[in-house]
Amino acid sequence: MSEQTSESTQEEPPILFLHGIERHYVQGDATLEILKGAEFAVWPGQSVALVAPSGVGKSTLLHIAGLLEHPDGGEVYIDSVATSKLSDAERTRIRRVEIGFVYQFHHLLPEFSALENVVLPQMIRGLKKAEAAKRATELLTYLGLKDRLTHRPAELSGGEQQRVAIARAVANAPRILLADEPTGNLDPKTSDHVFGALTQLSRASGLAVVIATHNMDIAARMDRRVTLRDGLVVELD
Ligand code: ADP
Ligand code: MG
Question: Which of 3, 155, 196, 228 could bridge 52 with an S-S bond, Cβ 3.0-4.6 Å?
Fold first, then answer.
């Protein structure tokens, strides 16, 4: 299955390409070398698990890929566009249009319903409410939340909240979804359900997905598995 995916997709350029990425943090007298020339490419419709111990640099890599942070060296290409020399406004535009982010904790707006949480980012992008609600309903239904549309986050289980967060992250049809250990507090069955739906969505819509996770069951569902070793991205199988 993964062979077929890479064969069929690698004729086109990667949607996300990290090239020679370096990142260090200065802490007092010490310099922490986190990324030392990392190379990482992800193609449309591909899902990749980033599996590595805590503190190794998973969040750093995702933040750089999501244009939330600048690397100290190297280049981030989004849809073949080199992003390092773009203005902040242009980087922000690319981030808004091309990239969805799911955080470890869902960050849903507590006073709004599941539906509204997925509608709002679309309206901010300029969609009419009716169109936004239609897409939000479709996405939430796809993720198994048809009967939870009017629930507020506090009235949803952890797995349901996480699915709303995923629906929100893909509401504006980004090309890339980056998820940073989004399963922290989910039981295995629930996370299996959530990430089964996500890989389906990825294959159906051409969305590229990168998930930092410690959960081996989720990693096994993805098309590829990579880790971080000595500041480099290494393919696991
Ligand atoms: P992971 O997500 O794999 O747990 P991170 O990318 O969050 O790892 O962090 C990698 C390393 O970089 C950790 O040792 C962390 O303490 C350090 N680090 C991350 N952000 C900063 C920062 N802003 N300043 C200093 N050190 C940092
Ligand atoms: Mg992290």
Answer: 228
Instruction: List the Cα angle 184/70/178 in 5-degree steps.
Output: 30
Assigned token pair, 88: 């902040």
Residues with CB under 6 A from ligand 1: 25, 27, 32, 34, 52, 54-60
> What spacing in Å lies between the alpha carbon of 48 and ligand 1's midpoint?
21
Q: Whose CA is nearest to atom 22 of ligand 1?
A: 25
CA distance 152 to 104: 19
pLDDT tens digits, one per residue of 38-73: 999 999 999 999 999 999 999 999 999 999 999 999
Q: How far is the CA of 101 from the centre of ligand 1 (A)?
A: 18
pTM: 0.91
Residue 6 in tokens: 């890479």
Cα-to-centroid distance, 137 and ligand 2 (Å): 31
Nearest to 180 by CA among 169, 164, 189: 169
Instruction: Give the dihedral sign, CA 44/203/221/183.
Output: positive
